[in-house]
Amino acid sequence: MTITASAPPPVKQKGAARPKRLNHLRQNWWIYVFLLPTFLGYGAYTVYPLLASWWYALLDWPGFAMSGEFIGFENFERLLTDDQFWNAFGKSLLFLVIAVPARVGLALLLALWLNSKKTPFPGFFRTLFFLPVVTTGAIIGIVFTLLLDANGPISLGLVWAGITETPTNFVANAGTSLYAGIAVWVWKWLGITMIYWLAALQTVPQDVHEAAMLDGANGRKEFWHVTLPLLVPFLVIITLIDTVSALNVFDLMHTLTGGGPAFSSEVIEIFIYRTAFAATVPQLGYASAAAVLFGLLTVIIAVAQAVGVRWARKQMGSGS
């Protein structure tokens, strides 16, 4: 019996992958030529402004001069004692705390209704609720300034129904302007969150529903004890996505309320815009410092989103 030794596997050389990449670039160079305008546009209008804002935040610069005076972290120190900045920061947090749960919860109820076999014309209603998503936020803001006016149909309808005694301009009232913006924002983006929930509901096996029904569970018990626990990973992901979205409301709030009246609906984005461009004396450096702090808040939420998504994937992978 002859025993033959098998040859050892070939050792991959580290430099072998480099010629392959170079050959790939030579053969597909035209792809990168078509991508070049996108790279240039992204660099000019996203990367450069992002990096420049960090430098501008260290300057005392109104934007008119060719260059500003370097003042270090004085803009950030001033922000910490600026009541208007903290007012805008608080309004943004209040917007987020109210709008995100409302959007997530209402979208879930809507998805459950549309996912039911008893719902007539589900495709029609899905399209109907999704239409505001593809409409520009600025256009929606302008339209709702007319709808929410004291002489608009919403105010007059509430008076006719006896809910309010006198017509109210909801966007021009300091007590209702922010909440009007929250309601419009939730209405606009409800459709996309509904689609997320519909996709999540499709992952729940049908035999799980059937087993719950055989055990005597009614629709409410089945939802709380069977469906909802299976949707918890999706709940984390959808909530974090909507949280990031709730920080980007400039177009809607600027056209709807403009941050007024008396700064009652001024979120951070409108504060930055007003400080940089709409003030009597523009303060581009100071506005950049506010934008940097706002960006850091967004980064923190994005990191939380990444952690939440990783946890959710582990939960879905483990079958819990």
How would you characterize the overall build of this protein?
The protein is mainly α. The protein has a single domain (79-318), classed as MetI-like fold (Orthogonal Bundle), CATH 1.10.3720.10. Helices cover 69% and strands 1% of the residues. It has a two-stranded antiparallel sheet with strand order 1-2. α4 packs parallel to α8 (177-201).
Residue share in helix: 55-70%
CATH superfamily, by name, is MetI-like
Overall number of strands: 2
Please state roughly what percent of the residues sit in beta strands, choosing from under 5%, 5-15%, 15-25%, 25-35%, 35-45% or over 45%. Answer: under 5%
Contiguous helical run count: 13
Q: Compute the gyration radius: what is it?
A: 27 Å
Structural class: mainly alpha
Gross CATH architecture: Orthogonal Bundle
Strand arrangement, major sheet: 1-2
Major pleated sheet = 2 strands, antiparallel
The coarse overall form would be: globular
- And the CATH topology? MetI-like fold
Low-confidence runs of at least 5 consecutive residues: none
Calculate the mean pLDDT score and round it: 84
Distance between the termini: 55 Å
The secondary-structure element order is HHEEHHHHHHHHHHH
CATH class: Mainly Alpha
Number of domains: 1
